[in-house]
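User: Fold this; tokens only.

Assistant: Input:
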Amino acid sequence: MSFVLGITGGIASGKTTVVDFFRAKGFPIVDGDIVAREVVEPGTEGLKSLEKAFGSEIIEKTGGLDRKKLGALIFHDEEKRNLLNKTLDPFIRGEIKRQTEEAKKSNDLVIVDVPLLYEGKYEAMMDEVAVVYVTPEIQLNRLMARNKLTKKEALGRINSQLSLDEKRERADILIDNCGSQETTRQQVLDWLKENKYVS
């Protein structure tokens, strides 16, 4: 029986670091961000649907998606942002599901990395969900440092997501990433040992 562990967090909470620990141990990763890019590659049904929804000006001469133009269209327009999500959701969800089922065939544990897991209601596809947690102060400072943002810009990005505290409440497993990478890695190892995925 294969176990599907969803991993999520907030922006700059260290989710990628945690996913990399699982990857280093050889577990397959279904990456929601990569899937979201793949479903709008030139010639895909996803890209055709986007063109239908937003017009041909979002398509580059080479046939690829002009992310800058699309970004500018949806940036300050919630209606268009919702349209984008509604248009791509079936493609992203379907592909995540397909890749997860494929990985389950030959692995005891499959990691599904979805940044907006709760926002997108993906928890139904998981056996359990692990949330990578940091305090709001650490999250803000890391994001400002990582993306060279002002406090206001960073808060804007953080507040556009479900709060980490709310995600923490809903988590089956909590990975505390407030300390060093080593402490975080140890938590992942402990969980893997406890569940007999590594000896």
